[in-house]
Protein backbone atom coordinates (compact mmCIF):
# COMPACT_ATOMS: atom_id res chain seq x y z
CA UNK A 1 0.00 0.00 0.00
CA UNK A 2 1.28 3.46 -0.97
CA UNK A 3 1.67 6.09 1.79
CA UNK A 4 0.77 9.51 0.42
CA UNK A 5 1.30 12.73 2.39
CA UNK A 6 -0.61 15.96 1.68
CA UNK A 7 0.90 19.19 3.03
CA UNK A 8 -0.58 22.70 2.76
CA UNK A 9 -0.96 25.54 5.24
CA UNK A 10 -4.63 25.82 4.20
CA UNK A 11 -6.49 23.02 6.06
CA UNK A 12 -9.52 23.35 3.79
CA UNK A 13 -7.39 22.61 0.73
CA UNK A 14 -5.78 19.60 2.39
CA UNK A 15 -9.08 18.16 3.61
CA UNK A 16 -10.82 18.71 0.28
CA UNK A 17 -8.04 17.02 -1.67
CA UNK A 18 -7.86 14.12 0.80
CA UNK A 19 -11.62 13.58 0.50
CA UNK A 20 -11.43 13.61 -3.29
CA UNK A 21 -8.55 11.12 -3.35
CA UNK A 22 -10.24 8.75 -0.91
CA UNK A 23 -13.13 8.40 -3.35
CA UNK A 24 -10.86 7.04 -6.10
CA UNK A 25 -11.44 3.28 -6.32
CA UNK A 26 -8.11 2.65 -8.06
CA UNK A 27 -6.02 4.49 -5.46
CA UNK A 28 -4.87 2.00 -2.84
CA UNK A 29 -3.16 4.48 -0.55
CA UNK A 30 -2.99 5.58 3.04
CA UNK A 31 -3.35 9.36 3.15
CA UNK A 32 -1.52 11.40 5.79
CA UNK A 33 -2.49 15.05 6.22
CA UNK A 34 -0.27 17.85 7.54
CA UNK A 35 -0.87 21.59 7.69
CA UNK A 36 2.76 22.75 7.84
CA UNK A 37 6.22 21.52 7.00
CA UNK A 38 7.06 20.99 10.67
CA UNK A 39 3.90 18.93 11.25
CA UNK A 40 4.86 16.81 8.24
CA UNK A 41 8.33 16.22 9.72
CA UNK A 42 6.78 15.20 13.03
CA UNK A 43 4.74 12.55 11.22
CA UNK A 44 7.80 11.05 9.51
CA UNK A 45 8.16 8.65 12.42
CA UNK A 46 4.90 6.92 11.47
CA UNK A 47 6.50 5.22 8.47
CA UNK A 48 8.00 5.62 5.02
CA UNK A 49 6.47 8.20 2.65
CA UNK A 50 6.14 7.05 -0.97
CA UNK A 51 4.53 10.15 -2.47
CA UNK A 52 4.57 13.75 -1.16
CA UNK A 53 2.13 16.39 -2.44
CA UNK A 54 3.06 19.76 -0.99
CA UNK A 55 2.41 23.43 -1.52
CA UNK A 56 5.60 25.38 -2.23
CA UNK A 57 4.86 28.60 -0.37
CA UNK A 58 4.17 27.90 3.31
CA UNK A 59 5.10 29.89 6.41
CA UNK A 60 8.08 28.57 8.34
CA UNK A 61 9.30 25.70 6.18
CA UNK A 62 8.73 25.90 2.44
CA UNK A 63 7.64 22.97 0.32
CA UNK A 64 11.07 22.94 -1.31
CA UNK A 65 12.79 22.52 2.05
CA UNK A 66 10.32 19.82 3.06
CA UNK A 67 10.89 17.97 -0.22
CA UNK A 68 14.67 18.01 0.32
CA UNK A 69 14.32 16.63 3.85
CA UNK A 70 11.84 14.00 2.69
CA UNK A 71 14.06 12.73 -0.11
CA UNK A 72 17.07 12.81 2.17
CA UNK A 73 15.24 10.34 4.43
CA UNK A 74 13.53 8.37 1.61
CA UNK A 75 15.49 8.92 -1.64
CA UNK A 76 12.89 7.09 -3.72
CA UNK A 77 9.96 9.20 -2.54
CA UNK A 78 8.19 11.00 -5.39
CA UNK A 79 7.29 14.67 -4.91
CA UNK A 80 4.49 16.68 -6.53
CA UNK A 81 4.52 20.43 -5.94
CA UNK A 82 1.22 22.29 -5.90
CA UNK A 83 2.25 25.69 -7.15
CA UNK A 84 1.00 29.01 -8.41
CA UNK A 85 2.26 30.87 -11.48
CA UNK A 86 4.74 32.86 -9.40
CA UNK A 87 6.48 29.64 -8.36
CA UNK A 88 6.63 28.16 -11.86
CA UNK A 89 10.35 28.67 -12.55
CA UNK A 90 11.13 27.69 -8.96
CA UNK A 91 9.37 24.34 -9.46
CA UNK A 92 11.07 23.74 -12.80
CA UNK A 93 14.46 24.07 -11.13
CA UNK A 94 13.53 21.45 -8.54
CA UNK A 95 12.32 19.01 -11.20
CA UNK A 96 15.86 18.61 -12.48
CA UNK A 97 16.60 16.60 -9.34
CA UNK A 98 14.49 13.73 -10.67
CA UNK A 99 11.42 12.09 -9.15
CA UNK A 100 9.69 15.48 -8.87
CA UNK A 101 6.67 16.88 -10.72
CA UNK A 102 4.48 19.94 -10.33
CA UNK A 103 0.85 20.95 -10.86
CA UNK A 104 -0.47 24.48 -11.17
CA UNK A 105 -3.22 25.05 -8.63
CA UNK A 106 -5.39 26.57 -11.33
CA UNK A 107 -5.41 23.30 -13.30
CA UNK A 108 -7.83 21.62 -10.89
CA UNK A 109 -8.34 18.09 -9.53
CA UNK A 110 -7.88 16.25 -12.82
CA UNK A 111 -4.34 17.55 -13.25
CA UNK A 112 -3.47 16.53 -9.68
CA UNK A 113 -4.92 13.04 -10.19
CA UNK A 114 -3.02 12.69 -13.47
CA UNK A 115 0.24 13.63 -11.71
CA UNK A 116 -0.48 11.07 -8.96
CA UNK A 117 -1.12 8.35 -11.54
CA UNK A 118 2.13 9.24 -13.27
CA UNK A 119 4.06 9.04 -9.98
CA UNK A 120 2.45 5.72 -9.02
CA UNK A 121 3.30 4.26 -12.43
CA UNK A 122 6.88 5.38 -11.91
CA UNK A 123 6.97 3.68 -8.49
CA UNK A 124 5.47 0.51 -9.97
CA UNK A 125 8.09 0.42 -12.71
CA UNK A 126 10.83 0.73 -10.16
CA UNK A 127 9.39 -2.20 -8.24
CA UNK A 128 8.88 -4.26 -11.39
CA UNK A 129 10.60 -7.63 -11.17
CA UNK A 130 12.57 -7.08 -14.37
CA UNK A 131 13.99 -3.85 -13.01
CA UNK A 132 14.89 -5.57 -9.77
CA UNK A 133 16.63 -8.38 -11.66
CA UNK A 134 18.48 -5.87 -13.81
CA UNK A 135 19.77 -4.00 -10.77
CA UNK A 136 20.65 -7.30 -9.09
CA UNK A 137 22.74 -8.34 -12.07
CA UNK A 138 24.52 -4.99 -12.03
CA UNK A 139 25.35 -5.43 -8.36
CA UNK A 140 26.17 -9.14 -8.59
CA UNK A 141 29.89 -8.56 -9.06
CA UNK A 142 30.08 -7.13 -5.55
CA UNK A 143 28.81 -10.39 -4.06
CA UNK A 144 30.61 -12.76 -6.44
CA UNK A 145 33.45 -13.81 -4.05
CA UNK A 146 30.95 -14.78 -1.36
CA UNK A 147 28.72 -16.58 -3.87
CA UNK A 148 31.72 -18.43 -5.26
CA UNK A 149 32.63 -19.70 -1.80
CA UNK A 150 29.05 -20.77 -1.06
CA UNK A 151 28.69 -22.67 -4.32
CA UNK A 152 32.04 -24.46 -4.07
CA UNK A 153 31.25 -25.44 -0.48
CA UNK A 154 27.94 -26.82 -1.70
CA UNK A 155 29.84 -29.02 -4.17
CA UNK A 156 32.24 -30.14 -1.43
CA UNK A 157 29.26 -31.19 0.70
CA UNK A 158 27.90 -33.43 -2.05
CA UNK A 159 25.19 -31.18 -3.50
CA UNK A 160 26.32 -31.50 -7.12
CA UNK A 161 24.46 -30.01 -10.10
CA UNK A 162 24.18 -31.55 -13.54
CA UNK A 163 27.08 -30.83 -15.88
CA UNK A 164 25.14 -28.20 -17.84
CA UNK A 165 24.00 -26.45 -14.68
CA UNK A 166 27.52 -26.58 -13.26
CA UNK A 167 29.02 -25.05 -16.42
CA UNK A 168 26.44 -22.26 -16.31
CA UNK A 169 27.04 -21.55 -12.61
CA UNK A 170 30.84 -21.48 -13.06
CA UNK A 171 30.40 -18.88 -15.79
CA UNK A 172 27.91 -16.80 -13.80
CA UNK A 173 30.11 -16.79 -10.69
CA UNK A 174 33.34 -16.29 -12.63
CA UNK A 175 34.95 -19.38 -11.09
CA UNK A 176 38.35 -19.74 -12.76
CA UNK A 177 38.08 -23.51 -13.16
CA UNK A 178 36.68 -25.80 -15.85
CA UNK A 179 33.47 -27.52 -14.72
CA UNK A 180 34.04 -30.31 -17.28
CA UNK A 181 37.55 -31.35 -16.22
CA UNK A 182 38.72 -33.20 -13.08
CA UNK A 183 40.13 -31.03 -10.33
CA UNK A 184 43.05 -31.38 -7.91
CA UNK A 185 42.18 -30.82 -4.29
CA UNK A 186 44.20 -29.80 -1.24
CA UNK A 187 42.78 -29.52 2.24
CA UNK A 188 44.38 -27.17 4.75
CA UNK A 189 44.12 -26.72 8.49
CA UNK A 190 44.89 -23.71 10.68
CA UNK A 191 46.98 -25.21 13.50
CA UNK A 192 46.98 -22.12 15.72
CA UNK A 193 44.95 -18.92 15.39
CA UNK A 194 47.63 -16.62 16.74
CA UNK A 195 46.26 -13.08 16.99
CA UNK A 196 43.21 -13.99 14.86
CA UNK A 197 41.22 -15.20 17.85
CA UNK A 198 38.09 -13.08 17.49
CA UNK A 199 35.28 -14.47 15.27
CA UNK A 200 35.45 -11.41 13.03
CA UNK A 201 39.17 -11.99 12.43
CA UNK A 202 38.76 -15.53 11.13
CA UNK A 203 37.30 -14.51 7.78
CA UNK A 204 40.23 -12.10 7.40
CA UNK A 205 42.69 -14.91 8.11
CA UNK A 206 41.08 -17.26 5.56
CA UNK A 207 41.17 -14.48 3.00
CA UNK A 208 44.82 -13.69 3.76
CA UNK A 209 45.90 -17.33 3.43
CA UNK A 210 43.99 -17.56 0.14
CA UNK A 211 45.77 -14.44 -1.16
CA UNK A 212 49.18 -15.86 -0.27
CA UNK A 213 48.37 -19.16 -2.01
CA UNK A 214 47.02 -17.36 -5.06
CA UNK A 215 50.18 -15.27 -5.38
CA UNK A 216 52.29 -18.43 -5.59
CA UNK A 217 49.95 -20.48 -7.81
CA UNK A 218 48.34 -18.03 -10.20
CA UNK A 219 51.24 -17.98 -12.70
CA UNK A 220 51.05 -21.72 -13.42
CA UNK A 221 47.69 -23.04 -12.22
CA UNK A 222 44.02 -22.08 -12.15
CA UNK A 223 43.02 -21.73 -8.50
CA UNK A 224 39.95 -21.37 -6.28
CA UNK A 225 39.62 -21.56 -2.48
CA UNK A 226 36.91 -21.58 0.19
CA UNK A 227 36.55 -22.27 3.96
CA UNK A 228 35.47 -25.89 4.50
CA UNK A 229 34.56 -25.63 8.18
CA UNK A 230 35.95 -23.95 11.29
CA UNK A 231 39.70 -24.25 11.04
CA UNK A 232 39.85 -25.97 7.64
CA UNK A 233 39.81 -24.76 4.05
CA UNK A 234 39.95 -26.27 0.56
CA UNK A 235 42.06 -25.34 -2.45
CA UNK A 236 41.05 -26.46 -5.93
CA UNK A 237 43.54 -26.31 -8.78
CA UNK A 238 43.70 -27.28 -12.45
CA UNK A 239 46.48 -27.08 -15.00
CA UNK A 240 46.28 -24.49 -17.74
CA UNK A 241 46.22 -27.29 -20.35
CA UNK A 242 42.93 -27.92 -22.13
CA UNK A 243 43.06 -31.66 -21.36
CA UNK A 244 44.30 -33.54 -18.32
CA UNK A 245 46.60 -36.44 -19.23
CA UNK A 246 48.57 -38.65 -16.87
CA UNK A 247 51.77 -36.66 -17.31
CA UNK A 248 49.90 -33.36 -16.93
CA UNK A 249 48.17 -34.64 -13.81
CA UNK A 250 51.48 -35.51 -12.20
CA UNK A 251 52.95 -32.18 -13.31
CA UNK A 252 50.02 -30.34 -11.72
CA UNK A 253 50.52 -32.25 -8.48
CA UNK A 254 54.25 -31.43 -8.46
CA UNK A 255 53.56 -27.74 -9.03
CA UNK A 256 51.06 -27.71 -6.16
CA UNK A 257 53.34 -29.70 -3.86
CA UNK A 258 56.34 -27.55 -4.74
CA UNK A 259 54.53 -24.37 -3.84
CA UNK A 260 52.78 -25.78 -0.76
CA UNK A 261 55.90 -25.62 1.41
CA UNK A 262 56.58 -22.04 0.28
CA UNK A 263 52.98 -21.09 1.11
CA UNK A 264 53.32 -22.65 4.58
CA UNK A 265 56.48 -20.67 5.22
CA UNK A 266 55.02 -17.41 3.95
CA UNK A 267 51.90 -17.83 6.10
CA UNK A 268 54.01 -18.51 9.19
CA UNK A 269 56.27 -15.54 8.41
CA UNK A 270 53.66 -12.95 7.38
CA UNK A 271 50.64 -13.94 9.48
CA UNK A 272 52.38 -15.68 12.41
CA UNK A 273 50.03 -18.62 11.91
CA UNK A 274 51.11 -22.27 11.29
CA UNK A 275 49.06 -24.27 8.77
CA UNK A 276 48.99 -27.91 7.68
CA UNK A 277 48.16 -29.27 4.22
CA UNK A 278 47.24 -32.59 2.69
CA UNK A 279 47.30 -32.91 -1.10
CA UNK A 280 45.18 -35.36 -3.08
CA UNK A 281 47.46 -37.65 -5.09
CA UNK A 282 45.26 -37.53 -8.20
CA UNK A 283 42.52 -35.29 -9.56
CA UNK A 284 38.89 -36.17 -8.96
CA UNK A 285 35.61 -35.64 -10.77
CA UNK A 286 33.41 -32.86 -9.48
CA UNK A 287 30.85 -35.51 -8.55
CA UNK A 288 33.47 -37.11 -6.25
CA UNK A 289 34.65 -33.86 -4.65
CA UNK A 290 32.70 -34.45 -1.43
CA UNK A 291 34.01 -37.96 -0.80
CA UNK A 292 37.60 -36.88 -1.54
CA UNK A 293 37.43 -33.82 0.76
CA UNK A 294 35.95 -35.94 3.54
CA UNK A 295 38.70 -38.55 3.13
CA UNK A 296 41.47 -35.93 3.20
CA UNK A 297 39.99 -34.36 6.33
CA UNK A 298 40.07 -37.69 8.14
CA UNK A 299 43.61 -38.51 6.99
CA UNK A 300 44.97 -35.13 8.02
CA UNK A 301 43.45 -35.53 11.47
CA UNK A 302 44.64 -39.09 12.03
CA UNK A 303 47.59 -40.96 13.36
CA UNK A 304 51.20 -39.88 13.47
CA UNK A 305 50.63 -37.04 11.03
CA UNK A 306 48.51 -35.08 13.49
CA UNK A 307 51.11 -32.46 14.37
CA UNK A 308 51.73 -28.83 13.42
CA UNK A 309 52.69 -27.64 9.93
CA UNK A 310 52.10 -31.07 8.45
CA UNK A 311 52.56 -31.36 4.68
CA UNK A 312 51.47 -34.75 3.40
CA UNK A 313 50.21 -36.56 0.33
CA UNK A 314 47.04 -38.60 0.28
CA UNK A 315 47.58 -42.19 1.41
CA UNK A 316 47.98 -44.50 -1.61
CA UNK A 317 45.18 -46.93 -0.69
CA UNK A 318 42.62 -44.23 0.09
CA UNK A 319 41.44 -43.66 -3.49
CA UNK A 320 40.68 -47.30 -4.17
CA UNK A 321 38.83 -47.61 -0.87
CA UNK A 322 36.78 -44.53 -1.72
CA UNK A 323 35.85 -45.92 -5.13
CA UNK A 324 34.73 -49.22 -3.62
CA UNK A 325 32.48 -47.49 -1.09
CA UNK A 326 31.27 -44.52 -3.12
CA UNK A 327 27.68 -45.78 -3.21
CA UNK A 328 27.60 -46.03 0.57
CA UNK A 329 29.33 -42.67 0.89
CA UNK A 330 26.75 -40.87 -1.22
CA UNK A 331 23.91 -42.49 0.69
CA UNK A 332 25.56 -41.31 3.90
CA UNK A 333 26.26 -37.88 2.42
CA UNK A 334 22.63 -37.48 1.32
CA UNK A 335 21.55 -38.27 4.85
CA UNK A 336 23.91 -35.71 6.36
CA UNK A 337 22.86 -33.11 3.79
CA UNK A 338 19.30 -33.67 5.00
CA UNK A 339 20.35 -33.22 8.62
CA UNK A 340 22.11 -29.95 7.71
CA UNK A 341 18.76 -28.69 6.43
CA UNK A 342 16.91 -29.06 9.70
CA UNK A 343 16.51 -25.28 9.68
CA UNK A 344 14.00 -25.92 6.89
CA UNK A 345 12.05 -28.25 9.19
CA UNK A 346 12.19 -25.54 11.86
CA UNK A 347 10.61 -23.07 9.43
CA UNK A 348 7.82 -25.52 8.56
CA UNK A 349 7.10 -26.16 12.23
CA UNK A 350 7.05 -22.45 13.08
CA UNK A 351 4.58 -21.74 10.28
CA UNK A 352 2.39 -24.73 11.12
CA UNK A 353 2.86 -26.24 7.65
CA UNK A 354 1.95 -29.87 8.37
CA UNK A 355 1.97 -31.03 4.75
CA UNK A 356 5.48 -29.67 4.17
CA UNK A 357 6.69 -31.47 7.34
CA UNK A 358 5.16 -34.74 6.13
CA UNK A 359 6.83 -34.40 2.73
CA UNK A 360 10.17 -33.72 4.34
CA UNK A 361 9.94 -36.83 6.53
CA UNK A 362 8.82 -38.90 3.54
CA UNK A 363 12.03 -37.84 1.79
CA UNK A 364 14.00 -38.80 4.89
CA UNK A 365 12.40 -42.25 4.90
CA UNK A 366 13.66 -42.80 1.34
CA UNK A 367 17.20 -41.67 2.24
CA UNK A 368 17.34 -43.85 5.35
CA UNK A 369 16.17 -46.92 3.41
CA UNK A 370 19.39 -47.05 1.34
CA UNK A 371 21.90 -46.80 4.19
CA UNK A 372 24.66 -49.44 4.17
CA UNK A 373 24.20 -52.68 6.09
CA UNK A 374 26.31 -53.86 8.96
CA UNK A 375 27.82 -51.91 11.83
CA UNK A 376 28.41 -48.78 9.71
CA UNK A 377 24.77 -48.67 8.73
CA UNK A 378 23.60 -49.17 12.31
CA UNK A 379 25.79 -46.28 13.49
CA UNK A 380 24.36 -44.05 10.76
CA UNK A 381 20.86 -44.95 11.87
CA UNK A 382 21.82 -44.01 15.41
CA UNK A 383 23.28 -40.71 14.15
CA UNK A 384 20.03 -39.98 12.34
CA UNK A 385 17.78 -40.73 15.30
CA UNK A 386 19.96 -38.86 17.78
CA UNK A 387 20.16 -35.75 15.56
CA UNK A 388 16.41 -35.60 14.94
CA UNK A 389 15.60 -36.32 18.59
CA UNK A 390 18.00 -33.60 19.75
CA UNK A 391 16.51 -31.19 17.22
CA UNK A 392 12.93 -31.80 18.41
CA UNK A 393 13.92 -31.57 22.09
CA UNK A 394 15.77 -28.30 21.46
CA UNK A 395 12.82 -26.96 19.47
CA UNK A 396 10.41 -27.73 22.32
CA UNK A 397 12.74 -26.37 25.01
CA UNK A 398 13.50 -23.08 23.24
CA UNK A 399 9.82 -22.34 22.71
CA UNK A 400 8.69 -23.56 26.16
CA UNK A 401 6.23 -25.96 24.56
CA UNK A 402 6.67 -29.11 26.69
CA UNK A 403 3.86 -28.25 29.11
CA UNK A 404 1.56 -26.95 26.39
CA UNK A 405 1.34 -29.82 23.94
CA UNK A 406 0.81 -32.51 26.58
CA UNK A 407 0.82 -36.18 25.76
CA UNK A 408 1.41 -35.55 22.05
CA UNK A 409 5.09 -35.00 22.81
CA UNK A 410 6.95 -37.36 25.16
CA UNK A 411 10.56 -36.64 25.97
CA UNK A 412 10.92 -40.14 27.44
CA UNK A 413 9.74 -41.64 24.16
CA UNK A 414 12.42 -39.71 22.29
CA UNK A 415 15.16 -41.03 24.53
CA UNK A 416 13.99 -44.63 24.22
CA UNK A 417 13.39 -44.73 20.47
CA UNK A 418 14.39 -48.09 18.91
CA UNK A 419 17.11 -47.85 16.28
CA UNK A 420 18.33 -51.27 15.20
CA UNK A 421 14.97 -53.04 15.18
CA UNK A 422 12.84 -50.90 12.88
CA UNK A 423 14.18 -47.59 11.59
CA UNK A 424 11.08 -47.03 9.46
CA UNK A 425 8.83 -47.14 12.52
CA UNK A 426 11.20 -44.82 14.39
CA UNK A 427 11.18 -42.23 11.60
CA UNK A 428 7.40 -42.50 11.49
CA UNK A 429 7.26 -41.83 15.24
CA UNK A 430 9.51 -38.77 14.87
CA UNK A 431 7.34 -37.56 11.98
CA UNK A 432 4.24 -37.87 14.18
CA UNK A 433 5.90 -35.76 16.86
CA UNK A 434 6.84 -33.10 14.30
CA UNK A 435 3.27 -33.19 12.96
CA UNK A 436 1.87 -32.58 16.43
CA UNK A 437 4.17 -29.56 16.83
CA UNK A 438 3.13 -28.16 13.44
CA UNK A 439 -0.55 -28.73 14.25
CA UNK A 440 -0.17 -26.95 17.60
CA UNK A 441 1.65 -23.97 16.03
CA UNK A 442 -0.90 -23.69 13.23
CA UNK A 443 -3.79 -23.76 15.69
CA UNK A 444 -2.17 -21.16 17.97
CA UNK A 445 -1.44 -18.88 15.01
CA UNK A 446 -5.06 -19.12 13.89
CA UNK A 447 -6.21 -18.28 17.42
CA UNK A 448 -3.81 -15.35 17.64
CA UNK A 449 -4.96 -14.05 14.26
CA UNK A 450 -8.60 -14.27 15.36
CA UNK A 451 -7.76 -12.49 18.61
CA UNK A 452 -5.82 -9.80 16.72
CA UNK A 453 -8.72 -9.15 14.36
CA UNK A 454 -11.06 -9.01 17.35
CA UNK A 455 -8.89 -6.40 19.07
CA UNK A 456 -8.75 -4.30 15.92
CA UNK A 457 -12.51 -4.43 15.46
CA UNK A 458 -13.13 -3.58 19.11
CA UNK A 459 -10.80 -0.60 18.85
CA UNK A 460 -12.49 0.63 15.66
CA UNK A 461 -15.92 0.46 17.29
CA UNK A 462 -14.78 2.14 20.53
CA UNK A 463 -12.73 4.94 18.94
CA UNK A 464 -14.59 5.53 15.71
CA UNK A 465 -14.31 9.30 16.04
CA UNK A 466 -10.48 9.19 16.28
CA UNK A 467 -7.76 8.56 13.70
CA UNK A 468 -8.18 5.08 12.24
CA UNK A 469 -5.44 5.04 9.63
CA UNK A 470 -3.74 1.80 8.69
CA UNK A 471 -0.60 3.02 10.44
CA UNK A 472 -2.49 3.68 13.66
CA UNK A 473 -4.20 0.28 13.63
CA UNK A 474 -0.95 -1.52 12.80
CA UNK A 475 0.70 0.01 15.87
CA UNK A 476 -2.08 -1.48 17.96
CA UNK A 477 -1.06 -5.03 17.02
CA UNK A 478 2.69 -4.42 16.41
CA UNK A 479 2.67 -5.28 12.70
CA UNK A 480 3.75 -3.33 9.66
CA UNK A 481 0.86 -1.57 7.84
CA UNK A 482 1.27 -3.51 4.54
CA UNK A 483 1.41 -6.86 6.33
CA UNK A 484 -1.61 -6.05 8.49
CA UNK A 485 -3.56 -5.01 5.40
CA UNK A 486 -2.75 -8.28 3.60
CA UNK A 487 -3.34 -10.46 6.64
CA UNK A 488 -6.71 -8.88 7.42
CA UNK A 489 -7.89 -9.23 3.80
CA UNK A 490 -6.72 -12.84 3.53
CA UNK A 491 -8.36 -13.79 6.82
CA UNK A 492 -11.67 -11.95 6.54
CA UNK A 493 -12.09 -11.46 2.79
CA UNK A 494 -12.60 -7.74 3.41
CA UNK A 495 -10.08 -4.88 3.36
CA UNK A 496 -9.37 -3.32 6.74
CA UNK A 497 -10.21 0.20 5.59
CA UNK A 498 -13.39 -1.22 3.99
CA UNK A 499 -14.33 -2.53 7.43
CA UNK A 500 -13.68 0.88 8.99
CA UNK A 501 -15.94 2.49 6.37
CA UNK A 502 -18.63 -0.15 7.01
CA UNK A 503 -18.60 0.57 10.75
CA UNK A 504 -18.74 4.31 10.09
CA UNK A 505 -21.74 3.89 7.81
CA UNK A 506 -23.56 1.66 10.29
CA UNK A 507 -22.92 4.12 13.13
CA UNK A 508 -24.01 6.99 10.90
CA UNK A 509 -27.29 5.24 10.10
CA UNK A 510 -27.90 4.65 13.80
CA UNK A 511 -27.27 8.30 14.63
CA UNK A 512 -29.43 9.47 11.74
CA UNK A 513 -32.28 7.24 12.94
CA UNK A 514 -32.08 7.86 16.66
CA UNK A 515 -30.77 11.43 17.11
CA UNK A 516 -31.36 14.91 15.79
CA UNK A 517 -27.65 15.67 15.40
CA UNK A 518 -26.70 17.82 12.46
CA UNK A 519 -24.95 16.16 9.51
CA UNK A 520 -21.71 18.00 10.38
CA UNK A 521 -21.84 16.66 13.97
CA UNK A 522 -22.49 13.09 12.83
CA UNK A 523 -19.55 13.33 10.44
CA UNK A 524 -17.30 14.26 13.38
CA UNK A 525 -18.70 11.47 15.59
CA UNK A 526 -17.76 8.85 12.98
CA UNK A 527 -14.28 10.25 12.41
CA UNK A 528 -14.76 12.19 9.16
CA UNK A 529 -13.44 15.74 8.94
CA UNK A 530 -15.98 17.37 6.67
CA UNK A 531 -19.72 17.16 6.11
CA UNK A 532 -19.17 17.35 2.34
CA UNK A 533 -16.95 14.27 2.28
CA UNK A 534 -19.25 12.44 4.70
CA UNK A 535 -22.19 13.11 2.40
CA UNK A 536 -20.34 11.90 -0.69
CA UNK A 537 -19.11 8.76 1.06
CA UNK A 538 -22.51 7.98 2.56
CA UNK A 539 -24.20 8.26 -0.83
CA UNK A 540 -21.54 6.14 -2.47
CA UNK A 541 -22.05 3.38 0.12
CA UNK A 542 -25.86 3.54 0.49
CA UNK A 543 -27.13 5.15 -2.71
CA UNK A 544 -28.75 8.07 -0.82
CA UNK A 545 -27.56 11.16 1.02
CA UNK A 546 -27.61 11.23 4.85
CA UNK A 547 -30.56 13.64 4.78
CA UNK A 548 -32.50 11.43 2.35
CA UNK A 549 -31.79 8.41 4.56
CA UNK A 550 -32.99 10.23 7.69
CA UNK A 551 -36.16 11.36 5.97
CA UNK A 552 -36.90 7.85 4.71
CA UNK A 553 -36.55 6.16 8.12
CA UNK A 554 -38.33 8.90 10.04
CA UNK A 555 -41.41 8.45 7.85
From TrEMBL:
Gene3D superfamilies: 3.40.50.2300, Homeodomain-like. SUPFAM superfamilies: CheY-like, Homeodomain-like. SMART domains: HTH_ARAC (SM00342), REC (SM00448). Keywords: DNA-binding, Phosphoprotein, Transcription, Transcription regulation. Residues 454-552 form the HTH araC/xylS-type domain. Residues 3-120 form the Response regulatory domain. The modification 4-aspartylphosphate is found at residue 55. PROSITE patterns: HTH_ARAC_FAMILY_2, RESPONSE_REGULATORY. InterPro entries: CheY-like_superfamily, Homeodomain-like_sf, HTH_AraC, Sig_transdc_resp-reg_receiver, Tscrpt_reg_AraC-type_HTH. This is Two-component system response regulator YesN. It comes from Paenibacillus qinlingensis. The lineage of its organism: Bacteria, Bacillati, Bacillota, Bacilli, Bacillales.
